[in-house]
Amino acid sequence: MNLSVIGAAGGVGRRVVAQASAAGHRVRGLVRTEEQAEMLRLHGAEPVLGDLTGDWQDVLDGADAVVWAAGAGVAGHAQAIDGDALIRVADTLPVRGPRRLVVVSSMGVDRPNQMPPFLAGVLRIKAGSDAHVQASALDWTIVRPGGLSDTPGSGRVRVAAQLPGGMIPRDDVAAVVLACLDDPRTVGRVFEVVSGEQSITDALGGLPL
């Protein structure tokens, strides 16, 4: 598979790049700096220098699928990245790029008032861009992980439309994303994911239709 990763230098994005490259996929990743580009090269991926607020579309060349792993964070420019940029990507793919898109979003997007107050504003922005993706004609999947950690992944998760909370290693989020790309049953699905007891394959297979 030829995979394009947007947000390839982020915590989840660089793990998607590393795991996909290790699995033999051809990976191109959008990064903003030469230092980030060198990190991708070390994983055997091809960096594409660009910026989501400017020129970025070259990362789509030759792609069979796109992973959105970008995010501004609670202190960043959430509307510009989590909101407007994801909407632009969703609008661009039918014209230039593949139909397959997996979005790494966030738990609580559909209930921001129940989440910690410092997250609520970002979650509301993500809700708008997630909805835009869902309304598109793309073959989309939206993955909403719980709290993220840098502990080693276990490959064991719990998924559902809504979960009461929980944590998940970034390694496992990346593994879930790649599993979605291999599983056509996840097209058109939105789900939350945290650490659990099931293998990723079994957990995704148990999602209700």
TrEMBL record:
Domain NAD(P)-binding, first and last residues per copy: 7-184
Pfam families (alphabetical): NAD_binding_10 (PF13460)
Protein name according to UniProt: NAD-dependent dehydratase
Sections of the chain in a coiled coil: none
Organism: Deinococcus koreensis
